[in-house]
Structures are given as C-alpha cells and as structure tokens.
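Risk register update: the risk of archive-format incompatibility is retired. Evidence:
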Amino acid sequence: MGNREDLLDGARRCLLEKGYTRTTARDIAQASGVSLAAIGYHFGSKDVLLNEALRGAIEEWGDQIAAAMAAATPADADPAERFAATWGNILDTFATTRPLWAVQFEVLAHIERTPELRGVFAAANRQARLGLAELFGVDAASLGPHRTEMIGAYLQALLSGTAAQWLMDPGGVPSAADLLDAVRVFSAELGPYTTGARPAAE
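Archived output:
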C-alpha cells in the first residue's frame, strides 16, 4: 500500500480502538507508520482523513452484509422468510461490529457542532437507504423511487434503533422472529390504506 492507503488503514484502526474525538493526528501517524506531514499532504487535515476512513468502514460493512445475505437467503424465499433471514444475519454481525456502531453514535452526538460530519453522513444516507431496500428484496421497479427510499428509511430506523439497543443491552435485543412478529402485528393494527393516507403517485 501507498502512504494514502496506509493512512486510511491506520485511521480506521484508531477510530475503532479510540473513537472519533479521542483520535489524534499523532495516533494515526503512529498506527500507519507514516509521517504527520503526510496527513496534510494527502487529506488536508486529520478530520478529513477520519471522515473518509469512517465512510469507508461503513461501506465495507454494508458490502459484507450484502455478500452474506446473497449466500444465506434462498432464492425462492418469500418476503417474510427473507425479512427474518436478513435480520438474523444483521443481528449476528453486531458482536463483531460493535466498535463501528459505537463510533457512529459518537459521531452523531457531535454532528450539530461539526458541519463537515453532517455532510459525510448526508451524502451517504440516501445510498444506505436504497442499499437496505435492495438487501430486503424490495421491488423498486414496481414501487417507484420514492416509496423504495422511504421503505429503506424505515429499515434504516429499525437498524439504527436495534443497534443502539444492542450496545446498551445485548441480551435484550429482539430476535429476527420478534421483529417479524412486531411488524406483522403493528401493520395489522394500522389497517389497509385509506384514500387520504395513500402516498401520492410518482
């Protein structure tokens, strides 16, 4: 690897070990075996480097989940089976990705005072929604882009909320079967669409 890649790798390791706010430029330089000056040369600042390293770590996690799901979910699975299988695989990753979730929540706590962090998350947000919708087998062609993204946003809310619960109380997190049952029960309580509640045509 070159200096740029070494810095990204070192920054990622520091993020997961120390967190966002506690990582210094010197920490990254030592972890990557690259000089402090190289951070400014390749990225302009430590914060830009950390933001790029965090984005890369999140994207890599998403790719790993997608690959695991492609191998684990039967091609003929019905929507309920796919929902349960996908959540089961996601829940299984929490133990190994705890540091990544912890640093994401740490970053969110600072986002109001750090505009560049908002930009990093906002830029990736829509792509994450669409990726989750695809992961859960949402038929984007028939639903259209807006509905597909909103379903992805709903799944994203479930994912982030479940991850937050796992960080606080791993033993109390609902299982994939629990989540499926909750969605079914709550959807039944909501009842069918009414004319006023139906989303506008796209």
